[in-house]
Design brief:
274 residues, mainly alpha
Length: 274
């Protein structure tokens, strides 16, 4: 029962922080200081990635009509535009796919620590503040997903590579990149959601393969519970973000990242000295 409660809390954290540009890793690294699953390190490492499947299913459900090129409700032109959107998603995914496969183990071994997470939280927080001021008053080049060009999608894909560094936030890096190249807030956010589909499915599959399909009944239950909670909370988080950015910029998230980064730095700094 206690383990299930822990998983529910982790699912809540994942569902909220995966889509808001505030770094799910930054939050999980703090939460895991106080909440420890009584499972092997290998299972916990796999759980922290695979729990994202629930979050990504929320995107599929919310945007199913927009992402479905075979919908009977769409005209032939709309179906073609949906296929073009998927082509852009695949192209933008390639850089992270290549570098992720090459660097996954190295990053886990050398960069998965509190200092790197705190530094990335602060740097990208400052980045959001800078970009919002820099872009203030300028008209976006892409106010619809169809206006994203191939070079623009490749650039966003390049920013997604930066998110391999813990604490960066995948949504934070790609939204920031989208804003820099001229996408509107809504386009940058939506394209970020769609980019997550192949990336997070791929990352989850990779972790499961590395772990092996040797779950106990208890571990399988915890994994399903975590995914279910993550799914439900993600639906709320995505709808909140899309509603929020219609009237506000991303500065609040920038300030939040900086504060969280300082908290992580201070907490683990003091802990190391004690």
């Amino acid at each position: 029962m206690l383990e299930a409660l822990k998983v529910i809390i982790l699912g809540l954290v994942e569902g909220i922080t995966e889509w808001l540009p505030i770094s799910s890793t930054g939050h999980l690294i703090l939460v895991e200081e106080f909440i420890h699953l009584k499972s092997s390190d290998a299972f916990v490492s796999m759980f922290n990635v695979v729990i994202q499947l629930g979050a990504i299913l929320a995107v599929v459900v919310i945007y199913f009509e927009k992402l479905n090129p075979f919908s009977s409700r769409k005209t032939e032109k709309q179906k073609l535009m949906t296929i073009q959107l998927w082509v852009k998603v695949v192209i933008a995914t390639l850089p992270a796919l290549v570098f992720g496969l090459l660097l996954d183990d190295w990053i886990d071994a050398h960069m998965m620590n509190a200092f790197v997470v705190a530094l990335m939280l602060i740097l990208y927080g400052i980045g959001f503040l800078f970009v919002e001021d820099y872009k203030k008053g300028t008209k976006p080049k892409a106010e619809r997903l169809s206006q994203l060009t191939i070079p623009m999608t490749l650039a966003i894909g390049g920013f997604q590579v930066l998110a391999l560094i813990p604490g960066t936030s995948r949504s934070g890096a790609t939204i920031l990149g989208g804003l820099l190249i001229g996408a509107s807030r809504a386009v940058a956010a939506e394209f970020t959601f769609f980019l997550a589909i192949p990336v997070m499915f791929g990352a989850s599959f990779l972790k499961i393969v590395k772990f092996g399909f040797h779950f106990t009944v208890g571990e399988f239950f915890l994994l399903i519970l975590g995914c279910a909670v993550s799914f439900g909370v993600s639906v709320v988080a995505i709808k909140f973000l899309m509603g929020y950015i219609k009237k506000h910029d991303f500065k609040a998230f920038g300030y939040y990242r900086i504060v969280l980064g300082i908290i992580v730095l201070l907490y683990f700094g003091v802990k190391a000295l004690i």
